[in-house]
Amino acid sequence: METNFDYIVVGCGFAGSVMARKLAEEGDKKVLIIDKRSHLGGNAYDFVDEAGVLIHKYGPHIFHTNNENVYKYLSNFTKWYDYSHEVVGSIGGNYIPIPFNLNSLKLTYEEDKAERLKEKLLKVYGLDKKVSILELQNQQDEELIELGKYIYENVFLYYTMKQWGQSPNEIDKSVIARVPVHISYDNRYFQDKFQGVPRDGYTKVFENLLNHPNITVKLKLDAGDILKFTENQVYVDNKVFNGGVIYTGAIDELMKCKYGRLPYRTLDFKFETHNIDYYQPRGTVNYTVDEPYTRITEFKYLSGQKISGTTTIVKEYSRQYTGAEGETPYYAILNEENRNKYDEYCKDLKKVKNVYLLGRLAEYKYYNMDQIVAHALELADKILNN
Hints:
Layout: E1 7-10, H1 14-26, E2 31-35, E3 46-48, E4 54-56, E5 63-65, H2 68-74, E6 80-81, E7 87-91, E8 94-98, E9 100-101, H3 102-108, H4 111-124, E10 129-132, H5 133-137, H6 142-164, H7 173-176, E11 180-183, E12 194-198, H8 202-209, E13 215-219, H9 223-226, E14 227-229, E15 234-236, E16 239-241, E17 244-247, H10 251-254, E18 264-274, E19 284-286, E20 295-298, H11 299-303, E21 311-320, E22 331-332, H12 336-350, E23 355-357, H13 360-363, H14 369-385
Parallel strand pairs: 1-2, 1-17, 2-13, 7-19, 9-11, 17-23
Antiparallel strand pairs: 3-4, 5-12, 6-12, 7-8, 10-11, 14-15, 15-16, 18-21, 18-22, 19-20, 20-21
Helix pairs in contact: 1-14, 3-4
């Protein structure tokens, strides 16, 4: 392989693609971006299925942010479909807005009790506030405690057990503390200022990002097959490479899992096409107390496509990531032991000059799309200003 590039970027998702574009366009750097998959876009990749529905292969992606700089940057590469995501939970035969809010209250309890609970919530917290179920359970009022318990058991507990494969005793209280109750009539899942999905799909965004004369794209190329590291040097196909490397993949797999595999949760997706206009009442329905899957997403809501008589849904099943062929690591399992293992890998790579770790897998942490775009823009600026 040629090594006359200034930078090699590993991974064609948001982290790598934004980084490649910034380096190429603003720094006039020659950039090679590679990915072991056969397509651009990482987990945000989408395509039109046989039914004519634009689907997200690796689960639903809804862009949302309060960061105007990120929104403006991505708007250089796409127009937006103005979509506000609404999620409901299938609970006791009802569809209840999630996060649990004042509309959820009316659908859950008889009118008198719902009104009484609403007044208590407004008196204690006020309108348009978000409180955690842990806060409710720590109240003195018996009905507010009962409400917190109901939400914990019917919205949070079993869904989290399915999502993370944990028993109730294993679920960290800090996670419970983050589960919100929205004292509002706003059914949107996100309240960010900017939200929607790319009008022509995510894949088109990546095609536009990487359409630059300084960028070379190579797909179906595994970084582990060409990149090698010594104490302070990068080799590409056993030749010294003096440029920079931005790595967005799984750090343990790059290092051949020498300190052991970093644990993740993975997802299995079951796509189904149905010969009806719509399968469910909202874009996503969470199955919080029943069914083996965690949620069903119907893509026509997300894209705004007007297709009569057919629709495509996806059911999500969560399980432990094993590293087997075809599996995708999605969610890092964060605890002290795993962070220590991650730090061991970082120590090795920090000895090598001009290697940068960027993204969910490389940094072993969770990022929303807007957060990783912001992080990529910041890192690119830092590199170019050095």
